[in-house]
Design a protein that fits this description.
The complex is a heterodimer of chains A (about 450) and B (about 290). Chain A has about 450 residues and is an alpha/beta fold. Chain A is built from 21 helices and 15 strands. With about 290 residues, chain B is mostly helical. The chains are: A alpha/beta (about 450), B mainly alpha (about 290). Chains A and B meet through helix 3, helix 4, helix 12, helix 20 and helix 21 of A and helix 5 of B.
């Protein structure tokens, strides 16, 4: 009995020593931290490299704050050519069970991920971080909602505009007052798309520019601004279904056809021209009068094509306006196209992944992205930071947000977009006239989008 | 022993042809979408093929593409290059063949980008820069003559395979036959027509058959240079499958289109085998030569 109790006394003493050593050790070095791997995929995009880098910065900050977890970020930056292709790539990786915990997409594709069950509903998580998310501009949430629920966190927004060459308008004979008043005339609906085409034709005929009006050569949201400028709609508000507005779409196709064949201000091979042969001649050489683009391209004009980096000098050569209305007295428009972070609903570390996204949405990190990439702020705190406040381009573009619209967050919008782009190419290369192109659009949309499409006259 | 020799090839054929063909057939019976979700729809996708207004145009494009690329380049130019480079001093011929092989050795995307730079419709393109030296206005070759561009892009690549195979065939023609023909007073053209061509009939047939089937399923250079456009002008069948399945996310319909291509390819291969009497080509020779 005595030996038994001695055994237990010794064992208890040893156990106490072990507990003390471990306990003191823990006090000295901190509790053992659990390592968590968060996989993220952000498309390598020269117009916004900080979308990826901000995730790295966010993880570094969180690792300094958290006591029980160390996050290891595995960041993939695939070089997909566009957001539509990145969406297709992500959907394939999700189908193979390889979807990342955090991914970046263009907002209009959220419907596809939500419908497939690959995107986490964020409404409740957002409420846990009011200091961050209450500061977001309310309009930004429109872009990340699908059927009334929030599925993403916007990282940037932008204004799209019609850029014009001030220097060429001066050579053409416009006075400073005329040039300065152009934006206001566009805003009031006094200067329409037709006026723009006629002016471009006159300047081109005078030999001052090689082309009067250029647009992007690839698929993208810009074109929908023209449909909206003609009074069209893209989505039925009640049912949420996609909408084909026949008359506005026809006006849009006629405008593009006329730009090539009536006014001769746009080349027929517009959709075959490499980006550099569009941005260079406009932003660098000033050989194009109007270019429909976005605020972030001001940065590209400066960085890649020799436009002046001094704001006064820049704005003495290049100006911008909203997209003019289709008809006198109509509505001038712009369109925002936020890129958003989404959290994988199947991620084993959903909440931690969301914390990374929240940290990456901190005002200072987001301001870095805005300033470096010429994108507009998503939250008020960003606009108060000196780097943002003193950025001439962002300041000048911010008022355009008042006129902002978005393309629909519908799961079939990718198909809608592809069909519209094919029709644009068809009318510009004269493969179809505008009426035939409208017929093509309607036929393809009816067969591909089926009951998710409403056609109106 | 039989298993050892045939096993790897049978395995490859089953893994990379039979299995994908079976999977494609199954997918064709679904409405699988971009998110890889779908339900069984029976033969709806195949019925949809008959109602697809773009399909007749795509089929015509495919015939134009295969015929012109095959006749003008993959077989025609391949044969001309083989004949010319075997009728000049050997070393010079080798240099020329090496030059013609360069496009084949260039990575696909680089080759595509070089062509895009060449046909850039603005004044910055290589072709238009050259035109400007003569005071000519820029030419938008892709919009004006998309097929010319596509046939050239594919042809310069495709000609090299025919050239290599036919060169080795021409070189294996016994010298005696050519000399005998010359002694009989035959011209070079007559030697080619009556001596060389009959003797290289089998390799020529092989190139023709192989390249027809290869062209039928190829679209990558078209995708890189014109994207199938302007509009659907250069969209061939295989590219149409890609556009519907990958770009539009209609994997079910794309699989139905692809399954038809598998059937057409298999039928064409078997028909060639039968009509051109391929069995004779691979049968054991009647005489044994040292």
């Amino acid at each position: 009995m005595r030996s038994f109790s001695r055994f237990w006394s010794t064992a208890s003493a040893c156990a106490l020593v072990v507990v003390l050593v471990v306990g003191l050790g823990s006090l000295a070095t901190g509790a053992p931290r659990r390592e968590v791997v968060i996989r993220a995929a952000v498309r390598a995009d020269a117009s916004g490299p900080d979308r990826a880098v901000n995730l790295k910065r966010a993880v570094e900050r969180l690792n300094a704050k958290l006591t029980d977890v160390t996050i290891r970020l595995e960041l993939e930056e695939p070089p997909t050519p566009g957001w539509a292709e990145e969406t297709a790539r992500l959907l394939r990786s999700f189908a193979a069970g390889q979807g990342p915990d955090i991914y970046a997409i263009a907002h209009e594709f959220i419907g596809q991920f939500a419908k497939a069950g690959y995107a986490l509903i964020l409404d409740d998580l957002i409420k846990q971080y009011p200091e961050t998310y209450n500061d977001f501009y309310p309009s930004q949430w429109t872009a990340v909602k699908h059927r009334g629920r929030i599925y993403g966190i916007p990282q940037d927004t932008e204004a799209r505009m019609v850029y014009f060459r001030i220097d060429q308008l001066k050579r053409f004979g416009w006075t400073d007052a005329q040039i300065q008043g152009l934006a206001a005339r566009v805003e009031k609906g006094d200067f329409t798309l037709t006026d723009m085409a006629e002016l471009a034709q006159q300047v081109k005929d005078k030999g001052l520019v090689e082309w009067g009006f250029l647009h992007r050569p690839t698929r993208g949201p810009d074109y929908y601004q023209i449909i909206l400028a003609f009074g069209g709609k893209l989505q039925d508000e009640k049912s949420g279904k996609l909408l084909l507005d026949r008359s506005a779409t026809l006006d849009f196709l006629r405008f593009l056809h006329d730009a090539v064949y009536k006014y001769k201000i746009t080349p027929s091979g517009m959709t075959n021209i490499p980006w550099r042969s569009i941005l260079g001649p406009f932003g660098g050489e000033g050989k194009v009068l109007f270019y429909m683009g976005g605020i972030w391209q001001s940065g590209e004009f400066i960085r890649d094509y020799g436009a002046p980096s001094d704001p006064t000098e820049f704005f003495s050569r290049i100006g911008w306006t909203l997209i003019p209305a289709g008809r006198k007295g109509g509505r001038a428009v712009t369109l925002s196209h936020p890129i958003i972070y989404v959290v994988n609903v199947r991620s084993p570390e959903k909440e931690l992944a969301f914390r990374v996204v929240t940290e990456a949405s901190s005002a200072d990190l987001n301001a870095l992205h805005s300033v470096n990439s010429y994108h507009l702020a998503i939250r008020k705190a960003v606009t108060r930071l000196p780097a943002y406040r003193n950025h001439a381009w962002l300041n000048k573009a911010t008022p355009l947000l008042e006129f902002s619209t978005f393309i629909p967050n519908h799961e079939d919008f990718g198909r809608y977009d592809q069909i519209i782009y094919e029709a644009i190419q068809a009318v510009e290369t004269n493969r179809l006239n505008p009426d035939q192109a409208l017929q093509f659009v309607e036929g393809q949309m009816r067969s591909q989008i089926k009951d998710q499409l409403i056609v109106v006259e | 022993m039989l298993l050892l020799f045939l096993g790897p090839f049978v395995l490859l054929t089953v893994l990379f042809f039979v299995m994908p063909a079976i999977i494609t057939a199954f997918l064709a019976l679904t409405n699988l979408d971009a998110a890889f979700q779908g339900t069984y729809v029976g033969l709806d996708n195949f019925r949809g093929l008959f109602a697809d207004p773009l399909l007749p145009r795509v089929l015509l494009n495919t015939v134009v593409y295969v015929f012109f690329t095959l006749i003008c380049f993959n077989t025609g130019l391949g044969l001309v290059l083989a004949l010319l480079t075997t009728h000049i001093p050997d070393r010079v011929g080798t240099v020329f063949r090496a030059i013609w092989l360069l496009p084949r050795l260039t990575p696909m995307v680089v080759y595509g980008l070089l062509w895009l730079w060449f046909v850039d419709p603005t004044k910055y393109g290589m072709l238009n820069t050259a035109r400007s030296w003569f005071g000519l206005a820029p030419l938008d070759l892709i919009s004006a003559s998309p097929w010319l561009v596509i046939v050239l892009v594919n042809g310069f690549i495709g000609a090299s395979l025919g050239m290599v195979i036919l060169t080795s065939a021409i070189k294996s023609v016994p010298e005696d036959y050519v000399r005998a023909a010359r002694v009989d007073g035959a011209s070079s053209l007559a030697i080619v027509r009556h001596v060389i061509l009959p003797l290289i009939r089998w390799p020529l047939t092989f190139v023709l058959v192989n390249q027809t089937l290869a062209l039928l399923t190829s679209y990558e250079y078209i995708l890189l240079v014109t994207g199938g456009g302007p509009f659907y002008d250069t969209t061939v069948y295989a590219l149409y499958v890609f556009r519907r399945a990958i770009q539009n996310g209609d994997y079910g319909y794309g699989a139905a289109l692809a399954f038809i291509l598998v059937v057409v390819g298999a039928v064409a291969a078997l028909s060639y085998w039968r009509l051109l009497n391929f069995e004779r080509m691979i049968s054991a020779p009647k005489i044994e030569a040292d």
